[in-house]
Amino acid sequence: MNRTEVFAIIFKRNQGAIMHAVDGLSHAEGLLQLPGDSNCMNWVLGHIATYRDGMLADIGVEEYMSEEETSLYGSGSSPITPDSPSVDFDRLVELQKLTFDGLYGWLTSNPTDLEKETRSDMPFKKGYAGYWESVIEHLAQMTGHESVHVGELSALHELAKVSMTGK
Predict the structure, then answer these.
(1) Going from the N-terminus, what domains does the chain have, and what CATH number goes with each?
(2) pLDDT of 137-165, one tens digit each?
(3) Which of 10, 66, 103, 119 sits a CA distance of 20 to 30 A from 162?
(4) Within 10 Å of residue 97's Cβ, how many Cβ atoms?
(5) DSSP-H helix ranges across the chain
(6) Is the pTM of this model over 0.85?
(7) Helix, strand, coil percent content, the chain, rounded in steps of 5
(8) What does the alpha-carbon distance between residue 59 and residue 143 come to, in Å, rounded to a whole number?
């Protein structure tokens, strides 16, 4: 098994967990927050999409997010609350599908440019801070980073289910 096949498996598993977590939820339920200093599902989904979009930009595949959207979810962005600006939940779900399809399609096409230098001309911060020298380094960092945030979705999904039942 080569490196891109390993990354493709991880992204496919993450995507399955994401789609399970968002199934049947509303925009309001996506804004629910656990006690303490935690992220709501809306922020997690926007953050994942922002980082995926940055990877798409780095590999030269179609990007999907606007500067306005990425500014809400990039590293160091403000928390998303019911009173703050946010991207609609349906759009965030759509972005999960679009960015996954772009990355998964690229990974399964047996790309040969993994050692290519990363872009130094990002037009605006798309979950990308230029820490990596090669596409493979960026992909490795992003895969781990995304997996951490996907892990947050299970508890947020349970919170939304409890909210839906009123218990």
Answers:
(1) 3-165 (1.20.120.450)
(2) 888 988 999 999 999 999 999 999 998 77
(3) 10
(4) 14
(5) 3-22, 27-30, 41-59, 67-73, 89-107, 135-165
(6) yes
(7) 60, 0, 40
(8) 15
